Amino acid sequence: METMKVKLKYPVAFDGVVRDELVMRRPKVRDMRGASKQAQGDDELREIVLFAALAGVAPDDIEAMDMVDYDAMQRAYESFRSARPAPHRDGEGAGPAANEGVRDAAAVG
What we know:
Blueprint: E1 3-14, E2 17-25, H1 29-39, H2 43-55, H3 59-63, H4 67-81, E3 102-104
Parallel strand pairs: 1-3
Antiparallel strand pairs: 1-2
Region (Disordered): 81-109
Protein name: Phage tail assembly protein
């Protein structure tokens, strides 16, 4: 399964452990449906619940993130939504990556 590392400029505790990166997996339709059901019409909460599921953390932990890091998660999510072949691509668009199936999200400057 393709995943993306999101480097955090402002590390935060997730499940009591301070982390400086999250690994986000590609979304499935069931992820969006589950997040929509939990959010009950609240678009911001739907995104938070969805990102939490994709990163394997609690929604409350996502809410504690700095906005710079949350923006990086949004970019990672959007990159999954773009149409492109997933296998055998590195950050330059050719060949296998060192961590096959794992990409790094660009940090916000």
